[in-house]
Amino acid sequence: MTDTFKTLATKRGPYKTHKQSYATSAGSTVGGDIQRLGYRPQAPYQLDLEVFTMADLRRRGGKEVRATHRYEFHTLVCVTQGVCTQVVDFEPVSCQPGSLLVVRSGQAHNYGRDEDWDGWNVLFRPEFVLPVSTTPRDPRHAVDLERLPQHVLLSSHELRQVTDSIQQMGEDTVIDAPLEDAHALLRHQLHALLTRLSIMHGRRQAQQPLISPASQRFQRFQQLVDERFVQCHQVADYASRLGYTEKSLARAVTAATGMSAKAFIAARINLEAKRLLVHTAMPVAMIAEKLGFEEATNFSKFFKREAGCTPAEFRRRQRDPD
Q1: How many secondary structure helices (H) and strands (E) does the chain include?
Q2: Which of 38, 74, 205, 208 is most solvent-facing, going by the fewest CB within 10 Å?
Q3: Are 126 and 142 in contact (CB under 8 A)?
Q4: What is the C-alpha to C-alpha distance for residues 229 and 219, in angstroms, rounded to an integer?
Q5: What does the alpha-carbon distance between residue 301 and residue 298 come to, in Å, rounded to a whole number?
Q6: Gap between the Cα atoms of 90 and 63, Å rounded
Q7: Using one digit for the tens of pLDDT, what is the confidence trace for 230-254?
Q8: Residues 102 and 145: beta-carbon distance below 8 Å
Q9: CA distance 280 to 287
Q10: Where does the pLDDT of residue 134 fall: very low under 50, low under 70, confident under 90, or very high at 90 and above?
């Protein structure tokens, strides 16, 4: 644990950082330089959720707040005042009052360099999304975080509703009650908040025109790319699996994203490559193999074409941005 986050742990205790490692062929481990953040409560704090403001995080976290981390927990970041540009999976997200970011476990997140803004952070374990009455065999009441977009822009009325809920949750993290009761209360409150956000998002979708056949084709393609981008690098493979012609698939992807289907696949591979370069110490050759490239040189050429620099240069820039 770094000194910066020791301060956080001393006050409320949910943070612990550790370096990503992987097993080499010889069985030893090599640590990465980019830290992952795990949710490891330390006494006396024992809850599976924490709420705090951005101003509080800056006071407690210092310079490390500005670093990129990969979370092992889910995070909601709700901007209440000021503007900022945060980065999620290496993509900048412009935020303003009412912006709510949903950062899922496993994603890379950076709060950005802007200082003149404030808002709420809600951290919780992935399993904490389930309400107290839900069992592993009865997931009907679980909230699917995947239904929510990465960035939601709330109206002023919606922002008040959301911040009121978050503030109440923050107050209840220090409620004088048995641990089991406090967990149950916070779990229900989180479930209610996420359900409210899902309803808000659903209203926006309902106001949009009906999904066209082309949009449906793109959605199926997008899902399949997420599942098969390591094994399938060619548009023809996806068209065959989906039962579309390459032309109809290409038109659907271009209409939805403004890019070709080939470029969309390449962008997904490139994103995973960036994640591996930043969050692990894997050699470039091992990353190439992991992403389905037969030769490391082909991967390096691909990455330089997509990212504008070699894999080694990208890794070095991310670890020493200044």
Answers
A1: 11, 11
A2: 208
A3: no
A4: 15
A5: 5
A6: 19
A7: 999 999 999 999 999 999 999 999 9
A8: yes
A9: 10
A10: very low
Q: How far is CA 198 from CA 76, 184, 191, 194, in A?
A: 13, 21, 10, 6
Phi-psi region of 28 (alpha: psi -120 to 50; beta: other; left: phi over 0): beta
Please report how many Cα atoms fall inside a 13 Å half-sphere around the Cα of residue 172, on the Cβ side: 22
d(CA 278, CA 121): 24
Nearest residue to 9 (alpha-carbon basis) of 41, 36, 37, 38 = 41
Q: Which two tokens stand for residue 313?
A: 């240069």
**How far is C-alpha 124 from the geometric centre of its chain's CA atoms?**
13
Residue 134, burial from CB neighbour count under 10 angstroms (0-12, 13-18, 19+)? middle
Residue type, 214: A
**212: Cβ contacts below 8 Å, ≥ 6 apart:** none
d(CA 256, CA 36): 33
The DSSP secondary structure of 110-151, one letter per residue, reads: E--S--S-EEEEEEE-GGGGS-TT--TT-GGG---GGGS-SE
Q: Could you give the CA distance from residue 146 to residue 74 in angstroms, rounded to a whole number? A: 12
CA distances from 172 to 39, 134, 189, 304 (A): 19, 21, 10, 50
Runs of H (alpha helix) within 258-310 = 261-279, 284-290, 296-307
Q: Could you read off the pLDDT of 22-73 as tens digits, one per residue? A: 222 222 223 344 567 888 766 788 899 999 999 999 988 777 788 888 888 9
What tokens does 237 get?
Answer: 């493979």
